[in-house]
Write a structure and sequence with these properties.
By secondary structure, this protein is of the alpha/beta class. Among the domains are: about 90 residues, Alpha-Beta Plaits (2-Layer Sandwich); about 180 residues, ABC transporter type 1, transmembrane domain (ABC transporter transmembrane region fold, Up-down Bundle), CATH 1.20.1560; about 160 residues, Rossmann fold, CATH 3.40.50.300; about 70 residues, P-loop containing nucleotide triphosphate hydrolases (Rossmann fold). It has 29 helices and 14 strands. The protein binds adenosine-5'-triphosphate. The site of adenosine-5'-triphosphate has 12 residues, from α21. Its main location: membrane. Keywords: ATP-binding, Membrane, Nucleotide-binding, Transmembrane, Transmembrane helix. It comes from Streptomyces lancefieldiae. GO terms for molecular function: ATP binding.
């Protein structure tokens, strides 16, 4: 199996593999990724069916070598038994150690098959005509069963295990659901009433369609034979009376089909929307309470994907394919008994195309899925290149590379076009093959049924209305592959959403509450150590005090842990050892919300929302008056530039405040923190992008604001912090190199003094 999975690169916490098994097989790729994601310690697994690449991220709980072994084992299990016939989905078994081999009954099945085959052969040779036809029908049924069973096993692979890891982690709400229930019922959740209503309407619609087909068959009968017996029994004895009656029946059936189809489609679509909305709001609520590490960096894209694409898929299944499954099931439930009861001699030929069409449809879907994956990948590459090129407009123009960019887009567009053409060819071919099969079956039914009518074994009155009905079934059967595909996608999406909902939410403290207006603002870090997952420690045995009512500054080397200290204070992260105390109380024991209410924080890269300037300053202090907003803006030196804008505070600033300069954005963020009026304020490079003059003005106004609160100022520009009561100079590895006031530090002629000399151009005194 070594040749099927080869490591490409292994770095701490991340491995890339080449897995031939997934090349051109999107389902296998999903299966492998799902299997690996179930393993504790593996935080992400993505397999690409186009490149055959596998990306695995893991945390410190698993060693790199163990991840390697797990990847190989998962590939072996999935390669050995992709259908998961061992009872449990292969994805689940691949996650076990060691994966058990599926247990078959090795002798019973072949013996049964040979026995049944022999009996069928005897019946075909020696039996009556009817026996032969029934045996043929049995063959059709077995073939249909085999194809459907294969489709079912395919779907079982994608099915998340009830009560599996996806639902058993720490999120109590998620863990409580799903014990033993089918995922589709889980997805429908509280909307079962609408599901029942939609299902009832679909069944009624199918019954009406079959009735309509029957009435049309009777019409033919009246025209050919002069009368249809069932109508005669209803008292319509003459041909013209029967035609009139049939006109009424056909019109009624048409109206019923149209009305019921409209109502059922509407109900299914509403169900889809309800499901989507419900899952999105519940999941988003959960996501908002996740630990910050799960919402940062690359993870944001995946979380957003789950909240849009995956949740959309859950709804889309009910808006479309669920209805199709029900229609298919109802057609089968009506037509098979009808043929068996009324015309068993032609049932086998009428239904012969069913396994063929089902098999063709599944095969087409398998092939199309690989093609769609390639097309999707190429289109995504094209899309991202278009955005990149447009965003890089100034760079492109400055290097005069417009033609180079256009050529790149041309190449990618051609590649996308080429794979789309392949997909289109196979889709059209499939549609035509299905059409040929249904036409052939119609011809076969006419010939064999007609012969039975001629030799008197089947009455024309019975045969005529049945002729057209199987076509309806076959057309639905041709969608089987698409339905199975949608079902698999839905289960995979459900699995991903459940995994997201099982991520731990932020644990709250146990030591009681903290009222923001009673906080003095005394902060102590006592022998604090902290490392981001898979990284060397950012802080090591760090102790410092940030006294209440004073301005404390953190300066020093980039990556020395300054922002990390702020994050520990905000409880975005908790210390691995040691403690962070606020007014003598360990912040881990306090409610996160209480701690955050007590701290005004301006991050290094503050986020502004798409909206007006006033909305952004008011964010978090929603009931602040207009006067308070303006006052905060004045303190942050934002008022002069805001007042100069044509729409003033009502100016819309676009996504992430794109319509403002960096320095303007920082001043809006500063005003927002000032308006919060918290007893502790942390400014992390809050004025790094403003000019020296404006910064000096901000410092003057901030002095009054800082008078009765604790300020922690993080800055690279030493002029920002020279008036601080105490300055900590941080060095690589999260340790304090020096501390003191500006003058004390200059007098030491150490790290700070040399930094000052570099920045100010003045030698230390
Ligand atoms: N989210 C994160 N995940 C992993 N490592 C991180 C993360 N954030 C910071 N680090 C690492 O932790 C160390 C300390 O980072 P931190 O942001 O606290 O430094 P800093 O002193 O604020 O740097 P700068 O002055 O450049 O802002 C760095 O080595 C950084 O790479």
């Amino acid at each position: 199996m070594e040749r099927d999975a080869r490591p490409r690169s292994v770095t701490p916490g991340r491995q890339r593999w080449d897995v031939r098994l997934v090349l051109g097989r999107p389902r296998t790729a999903e299966l492998l990724a799902a299997a690996l994601c179930r393993i504790p310690g593996i935080t992400e697994a993505r397999a690409n069916p186009v490149t055959g690449g596998l990306l695995v991220r893991h945390d410190a709980r698993v060693a790199a070598a163990d991840v390697g072994r797990t990847v190989r084992r998962a590939v072996t299990v999935i390669a050995g038994d992709p259908a998961g016939v061992g009872g449990r989905p292969a994805s689940a078994r691949a996650a076990d150690a060691p994966a058990p081999r599926p247990h078959h009954a090795p002798v019973v099945r072949p013996v049964l098959a040979v026995g049944t085959g022999a009996a069928a052969a005897v019946a075909l040779v020696k039996g009556s005509a009817l026996t032969r036809q029934l045996v043929a029908l049995g063959g059709v049924a077995v073939a249909t069963g085999t194809v459907l069973r294969k489709a079912w096993h395919g779907t079982a692979d994608a099915s998340p295990e009830p009560g599996g890891r996806a639902t058993s982690d720490s999120a109590p709400e998620a863990a409580g659901r799903g014990a033993g229930r089918h995922p589709l019922l889980e997805i429908v959740g509280p909307h079962r009433r609408r599901l029942s209503c939609a299902a009832a309407l679909s069944v009624a619609c199918q019954v009406s369609e079959v009735a309509l087909g029957t009435f049309l068959g009777w019409t033919g009968l009246v025209l050919i034979k002069g009368q249809a017996a069932p109508l005669a029994r209803l008292g319509l004895t003459t041909a013209s009376a029967q035609l009139l009656g049939l006109a009424g029946l056909v019109a009624g059936a048409c109206a019923a089909v149209a009305g019921l189809s409209y109502a059922s489609n509407l109900q299914w679509r509403r169900l889809g929307q309800d499901v989507e909305h419900d899952w999105r709001s519940r999941t988003y609520r959960h996501v908002q309470h996740l630990e910050l590490r799960n919402l940062e960096g690359e993870r944001t894209t995946r979380v957003a994907g789950a909240l849009t694409d995956d949740v959309g898929q859950l709804g889309a299944f009910f808006a479309g394919p669920a209805n199709e499954v029900l229609q298919l099931g109802t057609s089968l439930a009506l037509l098979v008994p009808a043929f068996l009861l009324l015309a068993p001699q032609i049932a086998w030929i009428a239904f012969l195309p069913i396994p063929v069409v089902a098999w063709l449809s599944l095969r087409h879907q398998d092939k199309a899925a690989a093609d769609y994956a390639v097309t999707g990948e190429r289109r995504a590459r094209l899309g991202s290149q278009v955005i990149n090129s447009l965003e890089a407009g100034a760079t492109v123009k400055s290097f005069c590379t417009e033609d180079h960019e256009a050529e790149r887009i041309d190449e990618l567009s051609e590649a996308a076009q080429e794979s789309s053409r392949r997909t289109d060819r196979s889709t059209v071919r499939h549609a035509e093959t299905v059409r040929a099969c249904t036409t052939a079956s119609m011809a076969g039914t006419l010939l064999i049924g007609g012969r039975s009518v001629l030799n008197g074994t089947l009455r024309f009155e019975v045969f005529s209305p049945l002729i057209g009905l199987p076509q309806m079934l076959l057309m639905r059967m041709s969608r089987l592959g698409g339905i199975v595909d949608q079902y698999q996608r839905t289960l995979a999406s459900y699995d991903r959403v459940q995994r997201l909902r099982a991520l731990p939410v932020e644990a709250d403290g146990t030591g009681g509450t903290l009222a923001a207006d009673q906080v003095r603002g005394d902060i102590v870090l006592d022998r604090v150590s902290f490392a981001y997952p898979g990284r060397v420690p950012a802080l090591e045995d760090l102790s410092m005090t940030i006294p209440a009512g004073q301005v404390t500054a953190l300066v020093g080397a980039t990556g020395s842990g300054k922002t990390t200290i702020a994050r520990l204070l905000m409880r975005f992260q908790d210390a691995d050892s040691g403690s962070v105390l606020l007014d003598g109380r360990d912040v881990r024991e306090l409610s996160r919300h209480d701690v955050r209410h007590a701290i005004g924080f301006v991050a290094q890269d503050p986020f502004l929302f798409d909206g007006t300037i006033a909305d952004n300053i008011r964010y978090g202090t929603f009931d602040a008056s207009d006067e308070a907003v303006v006052e905060a803006a004045r303190t942050a030196e934002a008022h002069p530039f805001v007042a100069a804008l044509p729409d003033g505070y009502e100016t819309v600033i676009g996504e992430r405040g794109a319509a403002l300069s960096g320095g303007q954005r920082q001043r809006i963020a500063l005003a927002r923190a000032i308006l919060k009026n918290a007893p502790v304020v942390i400014l992390d490079e809050a004025t790094s992008a403003v000019d020296n003059e404006t910064e000096a003005a901000i410092q003057r106004t901030l002095r009054g604001f800082a008078a009765d609160r604790t300020m922690l100022v993080i800055a690279h520009r030493l002029s920002t912090v020279r008036h601080a009561d105490r300055i900590y100079v941080m060095d690589a590895g999260g340790v304090v190199a020096e501390q003191g006031t500006h003058d004390e530090l200059l007098a030491r002629h150490g790290l700070y003094a040399s930094l000052w000399q570099l920045q100010a151009g003045e030698p230390a005194a």
